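Hello again,

I reread your note about wanting to compare the complex against the isolated chains. To keep things tidy I'm splitting this into two emails, and this first one only covers the full assembly. Below are the input lines as submitted, including protein chains and any nucleic acid or small-molecule components. They are followed by the predicted structure of everything together. The single-chain runs will come separately.
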Amino acid sequence: MGTESGSDLSPSLGNVLFDVWLAARATTALVDDAVRASGLNADEFAVYSVLAATDGMAPSDLARWMSAPATTVSSYIGRFTRRGHVRRVPNPEDGRSYLVQLTEAGRAAHLDAGRGFLPLLDEVTRRLGPDADEMHERLAVLHRILAGAADSSPEAGPPSEGHA
Amino acid sequence: MGTESGSDLSPSLGNVLFDVWLAARATTALVDDAVRASGLNADEFAVYSVLAATDGMAPSDLARWMSAPATTVSSYIGRFTRRGHVRRVPNPEDGRSYLVQLTEAGRAAHLDAGRGFLPLLDEVTRRLGPDADEMHERLAVLHRILAGAADSSPEAGPPSEGHA
DNA sequence: GGACGATACTGCGATCTCGCACTATCGTGA
DNA sequence: TCACGATAGTGCGAGATCGCAGTATCGTCC
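Full-complex prediction:
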């Protein structure tokens, strides 16, 4: 055991993977509370946010973006559609697919949730001080690495076979 | 619009909160795959890991640690107990509570899952290179800030009342 | 030592998540 | 142009998550 430093109240298990996991649980809980009044939860707010930032994404892109299984994304879209927050438009590049777009009502809901979210983000950013940018940078790096690991992982035995 | 940099394939929405969320989704997906064969999922593996590191935690501590509602932790414990992986021992400090301990079988399951997890962790750590420690440090800081924000947040209107 | 609000846990039920199996379309090769 | 494996999306069902409401115990103030 090398760095047994922490141990204040929270056994951190001291490895990057757990660190992100723990930080994200806290983040999600916080955001859940912050946007609750809008009727969205943290995950949904995230999805509304990408949709608001792009103008139409295919379900599979959404799935890749948020590292979620296709079925989960499928039910998200169903739910959002039922709410009238999202609309499906044909995907000119692929007939099996379609694009998901936020409707006006969807944008409104997103804005509404944003009203709860922004103060929280501001507070965290403020507390982070000048490190905020650095933090963003590092998380991006980590994310890229994780995406890389996802490809090279065994998963369910993809293409190659002669590695032994 | 200031920093519209990213945009390779992944609209990052460029703020710390989304960054962690995204990184964590990727992490969870990866770990889920890595430990699947052991019968655990990423979240469960994390819980087994703290339990293995401490020798007994109260449900409420567990809940605080992983930022989960009490009911969720409650059903975790029920599930783990049913698997024979966990045992409840009386909490000498509080009669309303108890301590959750990993049984031998629980430890075995954790080790088993670890066999899938460690290669992944190694790979990520290796790719992170010398930045790994720094990363850990920063995530710890962020986590601390988030924990702080959780207290000072409105939540459901805790103590004070005369603010309007 | 009793009253009483705060805190620890749990049963229940509504809703969400996601693996499996299936259909539709794409893209490549002959 | 047709065959065929790969890829996009979905219905379904099992199980997981978590809010609400309820019980037990604690701590504190009279």
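For quick reference: Residues 58-60, 70-71, 73-75, 77-78, 91, 94-98 of chain B lie near DNA strand C (CB under 10 Å from a C1').

B.
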